[in-house]
Amino acid sequence: MIFKAVGEGRPYPDHGLHSFKDWSAIAPRPVRLDQLITTKRMLDLGHLLSEDSTFYGDLFAHVVDWQGTLYLEDGLHRALRAALQQRSAVHARVHVM
Questions:
Q1: What pTM was estimated for this model as a whole?
Q2: Pfam families annotated for this entry (predicted)?
């Protein structure tokens, strides 16, 4: 199994981080894929395979640590790409609530 679980939606309240600038204040760190619960069930395959998928966005995934559980809020394509490359972790900005 790649992820701890596949979720649908965000079970945590709004955290106030809405722009890449807000997230950029958080230093990235490695996070194991098997500790993450996704907040999206679907991914556009074109987005996953695109070479410039991070051109307009953050280079790091966005993870929310809520009640000791890690939720992958943004960067599902990065996490899946890491898994396809046989890596067990992805670098992410982790916001602790």
A1: 0.84
A2: VapB (PF23719)
> Does residue 15 sit within a domain?
no
CATH code for the domain in which residue 35 is found: 3.90.1530.10
At 45, give phi and psi (nearest 5°): -60, -35
SS3 52: coil
Copy the structure tokens of residue 44. Answer: 């556009």
CA distances from 31 to 46, 49, 50, 56, 65 (A): 25, 22, 23, 23, 11
Number of folded domains that form the chain: 1
Count CB atoms within 10 A of the CB of residue 62. Answer: 24
76 belongs to a structural domain: yes
Q: How far apart are CA 73 and CA 2, in angstroms?
A: 16
